[in-house]
Hints:
The chain is of the alpha+beta class. It is built from 13 helices and 27 strands. 29% of the residues lie in helices and 26% in strands.
Amino acid sequence: MVIEIKVPTVGESISEVTIAKWLKKDGDYVQQDEVLCEMESEKATFELNAEKAGILKIAAQEGATLKIGDVACTIDTAAAAPAQEAAPATAAPVAAAPAAAAEAPAAPAVNKGVIEMKVPTVGESISEVTLVKWTKKEGDYVERDEVLCELESEKATFELNAEEAGVLTLVAKEGDTLKIGDVACKIDTSAPRPAGKAAPAAAPAAQPAKAAAPQAQQAPVTSIPNDIRTTPVAAAVIADKQVDPATIKGSGAHGKIMKDDVYAALQNPGVAIGQEMFSRNERREKMSNLRKTVSRRLVEAKNTTAMLTTFNEVDMTNIMALRAKYKDIFKKQHEVNLGFMSFFTKACCFALQEFPSVNAYIDGEELVYHDYCDVSIAVSAPKGLVVPVIRNAESLDMAGIEKAVLELATKARENKLTIPEMTGGTFTITNGGVFGSLMSTPIINIPQSAILGMHKIQDRPMAVNGQVVIRPMMYIALSYDHRIIDGRESVSFLVRVKEMLENPEQLLFGKDPLKALLKL
């Protein structure tokens, strides 16, 4: 019985996923609950497990984008595990005898006959390819995995390899345009191996020994070292133009030399391609689901809100002095550093409760207010920007906030955030100051109505009590949806945050900051 393994529902708002990596190969025998592949949604990465044991048949390739419910692979549950385990057992004596090892590839009679070599799927948006060059001739006996021809899509050049050993019959000609799944050639796997087939294979091994004598002229161009990878076309140009492949830096996958790399070397004969030189290379990469989601939501925020930004600046003198005074004892007590994020989160929570419209959002023709503060913290993760949420931040003390920030940031860097951890925030704080930003206009994280932007702390001359003094200052910005938040409320909210940050001992901790910080 063949069962279909479909993309599961992974979140209310998730409609599609991308196959990031297959952990099993086509034809593998898999056990129930074994991990088959890794999938990436717009918010998180998760694994797809086998529902039953059996033989795996992959239906979607790495990089393919699938909708929820699409078939990723199938499993033939009728295939028994012991049969699969028996195959390696028979392979053991084969490894002991060299003569038997040579006959091993011919053992499976299932593959005997004529097989069709079809154009494989090479990318989600690629529908056709061009056959650039045959590297084997009609009637040649080819070995399994030998390169048969070079195919070129609109984005890349790749090779078609023989699936089995046998006699080759060409179906398509050089220059033909083939659709994905079209037959390029056929291989008669029942044809006997020619008696003289081994002789040409030994010749290249002997040739480098002869070529060693005229090292100065022929060695670099008559043979290509095994550690240098080239496409067939590039190899032909190298041989024809007598270019030393060691001077060429390949631009293909894993450093493979492409034909354009060879032509570039010919145009700059005095400069080794491996050397630094002016480059006009371009490269294209498929956007990840996360990057597409970030792009879509940012544009949506700009197009659907009446977004405006108001600014203020905070004198960080008192916070920095308070932090310097208590950070060591704070870490000893709570086993976490006392950072700036806890001060800003605490100040925002107080201000959000004082100005509830900043903590609300529009739902159709209704305004939804929150009596709690679920504060989203923008974090730069390896795959893009993520915004995990600190739940009920208003009820947490400084240590609780710092621990929550550390935990969420660590999960973000390790790509382990779950979808619930990134949904449902009521207000967002983003800190561009860690990257050196002096001032910015952050974009609202919809459906929220406001976002606070922190920035770089910089010493600046300030007028204090009629004197010019140097103070550590930070610009803060509040971007807000003017449809729900009036100018008076937005400015008052930001001023309130500024006041609490500049007087942290009185406004955040009362008269005894040590007791508040350490919960004594």
